[in-house]
Design a protein that fits this description.
The protein is of the alpha+beta class. It has two domains: 2-90; 109-338, Bira Bifunctional Protein, Domain 2 (BirA Bifunctional Protein, domain 2, 2-Layer Sandwich). It has eleven helices and nine strands. The protein has helices at residues 2-18, 22-32, 38-44, 54-91, 109-123, 137-140, 174-183, 224-239, 292-297, 314-322, 335-338, and strands at residues 127-128, 134-135, 167-168, 188-197, 209-219, 245-252, 255-264, 281-290, 306-312. The strands form two sheets. Strands 1-4-5-9-8-7-6 form a seven-stranded mixed sheet. It has a two-stranded antiparallel sheet with strand order 2-3. The termini are far apart. Bound molecules: 3,4-dihydroxyphenylalanine. Residues 171, 173, 214, 252, 255, 286-288, 309-311 line the site of 3,4-dihydroxyphenylalanine (DAH). 3,4-dihydroxyphenylalanine (DAH) binds at residues 171, 173, 214, 252, 255, 286-288, 309-311.
């Protein structure tokens, strides 16, 4: 049996030299030194020998097994190293190449501008009130003091739907009525941001959708000086403390008196440039004292309450600020435009 052991040892060693990959190595291990391998099997058979021969055989068999185990370990390392080198060469990984840039998204310029609005108005105590995009003629026009066939309706080409009396709001002002009817008889200080829709020819200057931010304050003691001071404060926070603000008389059906608000041009500082069309002024809002009829329609008695309102266009303000000449960029989803902000 000792000769058998030596022969097995020689055979195993000869075979191990030929083993070239992990799979063959595993086969070799199972065949010789694994739990059911031949060398392991011989060790188990030590009891078959006459007692006198057992110690010598046992010792030798253990030596052989340990030596084969060590040889196996060395071979395993060599094969693993070779296989790794091969994988690296095949992958041809160049660790010095620059990484692929990970593109992160960004907020739309209008979203940023709207958030700036919320911040400034919140500091002055105005809450955001969300009103609906889908309206009826009553709220969008009549309750705002636009009688049927009133010529002021012509300024706002309306999207009608096939449903009777279902239209898309042409401005955020109908939210004034909804806020008043909800809050009566509390005083009100809200801004109403949101998308408005007009059935217009799309050009560089007009889009069929755009945002407005409406403002409404109603209370027992609100005067025009409150409106002027509040809007001037907004303009300075938005454009810088050195801005001039001016109010021009104007007309809106839902305010009386009505005013348009200008700030001295932020690009040329009033000297005159392309963006302000050489006037030195940029128009930033329509505004006025809430018309008594509108207060009444909202449930507030105009003999007791007064209020002011304003409307601003965030896209228009972004265009002024960055000298953008075409409003179509806003909903064109062209990344070259959007990434500039
Ligand atoms: N709703 C007006 C428009 O779309 C904007 C506006 C003007 C709103 C004056 C107001 C205001 O609240 O007081 O043209």
């Amino acid at each position: 049996m000792l000769e058998e052991l030596e022969a097995l040892n020689d055979e195993a060693r000869a075979e191990l030299v030929e083993v070239a990959d992990s799979e063959a190595l595993r086969t070799w291990e199972l065949a010789y030194i694994g739990r059911n391998g031949q060398v392991t099997g011989m060790l188990r058979r030590v009891g078959d020998l006459p007692p006198a021969q057992r110690p010598a055989f046992g010792q030798r068999a253990n030596e052989v097994k340990n030596a084969l185990q060590a040889a196996y370990g060395e071979r395993e390392q060599a094969i693993k190293a070779a296989e790794l080198a091969e994988r690296l060469a095949a992958g041809a990984l160049d660790v010095s190449l620059p990484g692929r840039p990970v593109l992160t998204g960004g907020l739309h310029p209008t979203t940023r501008m709207l958030r700036r609005f919320y911040e400034i108005w919140a500091d002055m105590g105005f809450q955001v009130y969300r009103s609906r995009d889908v309206e009826d003629d009553m709220h969008n026009f009549e309750l705002l003091n636009f009688p049927p066939h009133h010529p002021a309706r012509d300024m706002q080409d309306t999207f009608f739907t096939t449903e009777k009396d279902v239209i898309l709001r042409t401005h955020t002002s109908p939210g004034q009525i909804r806020a008043m009817r909800e809050y009566y008889p509390e005083p009100i200080r809200v801004i109403l941001p949101g998308m408005c829709y007009r059935h217009e020819q799309i050009t560089a200057r007009s889009e069929v959708q755009f945002n407005q931010v409406e403002g409404l304050a109603v209370g027992r003691n609100i005067r025009m000086t409150d409106l002027k001071g509040t809007i001037a404060e907004f303009a300075r926070r938005m454009y810088g403390s050195d801005r001039q603000v001016r109010f021009r008389a104007s007309y809106f059906p839902f305010t009386e008196p009505s005013m348009e608000v200008d700030v001295s041009c932020i690009l040329c500082d009033g000297a005159g440039c392309r963006v302000c069309k050489y006037t030195g002024w940029l128009e930033i809002a329509g505004s006025g004292m809430v018309h008594p009829n509108v207060l009444r329609n909202g449930g507030y008695d105009p003999a007791v309450y007064t209020g002011f309102a304003f409307g601003m266009g965030p896209e228009r303000m972004i265009m002024q600020k960055h000298g953008i000449e075409d409003i179509r960029y806003f909903w064109g989803n062209d990344l070259r435009f959007l990434q500039q902000f």
